[in-house]
Design goal:
Number of helices: 9
Distance between the termini: 10 Å
Shape: globular
Strand content: 5-15%
Helix content: 55-70%
Strand order of the largest sheet: 1-2
């Protein structure tokens, strides 16, 4: 095997860069929605633009930069979790299945972010919001993982709890209590808070996983890309 490259990942630098991207997406969303829905500004009439020209910046749209970024964050977290599960399984360590289940869960969330299964569920339920079902499921998952958190470093447990509170508070809490008309300035400002909390929660979670691995005997987090020689194929 020939080693192509080795990259050392800094949890702090990765988290900071992801937060900067998130901040830019939120600011652009707010500016775009203010321009489109705030009649007092008069920008829509003055420049004659339409909503579809700004939809790419709407965090609530499926086909937008924000949705792509959120899905990418969730998949990044899933890959880190599944990789961690694989390392622990190879070392015959405990809790490997718990890491794997979390990884599969984040894969599902990433798919849902693009496919919109919770929107489909919302349509199926009619007047009952999907958050009514999601809230007890989220609580049940959180309670079932308390032994997992207790078995790890207090720092890891607290970061996981913070990440879960941010993500759940945005995805379930804020969305459940946002009852404004979709095509309104009020709704889209709440969307900035909801989606911002979701993505910040995932970023905290990614940082927590990387920080946890850094605290294990491996000491550093590395990504190695290796390409096999022709003779090995």
């Amino acid at each position: 095997m020939k080693q192509l490259s080795v990259h050392t990942l800094s949890p702090e630098k990765i988290a900071l860069k992801l937060v900067i991207v998130l901040a830019i997406l939120i600011v652009v969303h707010v500016l775009a929605m203010q321009a489109n829905f705030n009649d007092a500004l008069g920008l829509k009439e003055r420049f004659g633009f339409h909503y579809w020209q700004l939809a790419f910046f709407d965090l609530d749209e499926e086909e937008s930069f924000g949705t792509w970024f959120n899905a990418a964050l969730l998949m990044m977290a899933a890959i880190l979790l599944i990789h961690r599960a694989g390392v622990l399984r190879a070392q015959k360590e405990a809790w490997s299945r718990w890491w794997l289940i979390l990884g599969i869960g984040f894969c599902f969330l990433s798919i849902d972010e693009i496919v919109g299964m919770h929107e489909w569920l919302n349509s199926m339920l009619g007047d009952t919001p999907w958050t009514v079902i999601a809230a007890p499921i989220l609580a049940l998952v959180g309670l079932s993982y308390l032994p997992f958190l207790w078995a790890h470093r207090w720092r890891t447990g607290l970061l996981f709890l913070l990440a879960g509170a941010l993500y759940g508070g945005g995805a379930v809490g804020v969305e459940h209590f946002t009852d404004s008309e979709v095509n309104s300035l009020h709704y889209n400002m709440w969307t900035a808070l909801e989606e911002g909390m979701e993505m910040l929660g995932v970023i905290v979670f990614i940082y927590a996983v990387l920080d946890h691995v850094r605290g294990t005997p491996e000491h550093v987090v590395c990504v190695e890309v290796r390409i096999a020689s022709r003779q090995a194929l």
